[in-house]
Write a structure and sequence with these properties.
By secondary structure, the protein is of the alpha+beta class. A five-stranded mixed beta sheet has the order 11-6-1-13-12. The protein folds into three domains: 2-254, no CATH class; 258-340, Alpha-Beta Plaits (2-Layer Sandwich); 343-406. The two termini are 27 Å apart. The protein is built from eleven helices and 20 strands. Helix 2 packs antiparallel against helix 5 (132-148) and helix 10 (376-386) packs across helix 11 (390-406).
Length: 407
């Protein structure tokens, strides 16, 4: 199962995501009751009315949050809001995954403010996020995700529209996206994009919820069978588009999907020994794979194309390594979505000839067929220690793995 969050046009806010989950099928009464139960943990604020209703939003039927509150709060410490959210989640008795998620969301919001203003996390004060709205969004979404069983599903996110222009808030006017939005998305895998709308389309609360919910950034919808669609309406209205967040739940094909970076450079004046050493170094520094291809370039010159696959986090260090080790004067960087066969990592202990060994292997399943790939370093180590060939050792270990899998 896969859930695709699509904020490409209208961006995202906490209430839009909450409403899209209700539209998808989350029990609205469970959410309303849970939020009302949380109200007592949030001082100087009360909820006069909370409900969800179907509306037409620029031609799209969607679900909107009806929230009337009575509060006189100009600012609150982030630690106060965090305590209220944690106490609420405990009182509602949600799953451990829901508790972890809710706490991570408010931690992300606090951390972003701490970094922007250069103050300790326990000294952070919220202004716009000090309203009980923040609690309603985080607690309500935690309930909805738990109710739909989505914490165990793969959640992917399309590029997130942030709008453009400027925003005015408690600290004055600044360009959009504001510092909090940039800080929240800074170390995530998610992708943001601007557009011509002179408005803030993604709120800090929406952003902090999203980075803790989805780890998969995608540019295109995956190959999937669509089962359910949820539309969550925002409070603003725009002339040129529907202010609606779309989420799509479906069954993904047998493959998984993720996004990787590809680093490429051509080198024509380095030895085979240097290239061999390069392979070892880039793998040690976190590359997912590396390939070297022989070819011919301009003027008939022989060349080697070095291609490295990695995650965003490894790009800078791997670029340094490629330049320092090969002397190349340029590296091409591209982003690529890839389909992957689902796999999992396993290990077991084995005693042979009085010696104990750890055996690590990958297990993959495709179209009902299961296969195992034994870690070659383990295979080599055992083969050398028991004085058997690699083939004999592999055959023996595969039989041992098949016995374990049958248990």
């Amino acid at each position: 199962m896969v859930l695709v969050i699509d904020p490409q046009i209208a961006g995202i806010s906490g209430d839009m995501l909450l409403c899209s989950l209700v539209d998808l099928g989350a029990d609205k009464n469970k959410i309303i009751n849970g939020v009302k139960q949380s109200e007592k943990y949030f001082s100087n604020s009360s909820i006069k009315k909370i409900d969800f209703k179907k509306i037409q939003k620029h031609g799209i039927q969607s679900t909107e949050l009806i929230l009337e509150i009575d509060e006189d709060v100009h600012e609150k410490k982030g630690s106060e809001i965090k305590k209220a959210i944690i106490d609420s989640i405990k009182a509602i008795e949600l799953s451990e995954k829901a508790k972890t998620f809710a706490e991570s969301c408010i931690d992300t919001l606090i951390l972003s403010e701490s970094k922007i203003h250069g103050v300790p996390e326990d000294s952070v004060h919220f202004h716009e996020a000090s309203s009980i709205d923040t609690l309603v969004d985080i607690v309500g979404i935690s309930i909805a995700l738990d109710d739909l069983g989505l914490f165990d599903e793969k959640i992917a996110c399309m590029p997130i529209s942030v709008g453009s222009g400027s925003v005015t808030f408690s600290h004055g006017t600044m360009s959009n996206p504001a510092s909090a939005i940039l800080e929240i998305f800074k170390n995530s895998n998610l992708i943001i994009k601007g557009n011509s709308t002179n408005e803030e389309l993604t709120t800090p609360t929406g952003a902090c919820i999203l980075v803790n919910l989805s780890k998969y950034a995608i540019e295109f919808y995956p190959s999937m069978k669509i089962d359910l669609i949820g539309y969550g309406a925002g409070q603003k209205n725009f002339d040129s588009f529907s202010n609606v967040l779309k989420i799509v739940q479906g069954t993904e094909n047998t493959f998984g999907i993720d996004s990787v970076k590809i680093l490429e450079t051509n080198v024509d004046d380095v030895s085979g020994e240097i290239l061999g050493n390069l392979i070892e170094k880039v793998m040690e520094k976190g590359a997912m794979d590396v390939s070297i291809f022989h070819g011919i370039t301009k003027k008939g010159r022989p060349t080697n194309l070095v291609s490295v696959i990695c995650n965003d986090e490894q790009v800078d260090e791997l670029i340094d390594t490629l330049v320092l080790e090969t002397g190349t004067l340029g590296i091409r960087i591209s982003e690529c979505n890839r389909f992957t066969v689902p796999r999992s990592i396993h290990n077991f202990s084995l005693t042979l000839n009085g010696k104990s060994f750890q055996v690590h292997y990958k297990k993959s399943t495709f179209k009902g067929k299961t296969d195992f790939k034994i870690e070659f370093d383990d295979l080599k180590n055992i083969s050398n220690n028991i004085d058997k060939s690699i083939k004999e050792t592999e055959s023996f270990l595969r039989k041992e793995i098949e016995k374990l899998e049958e248990l």
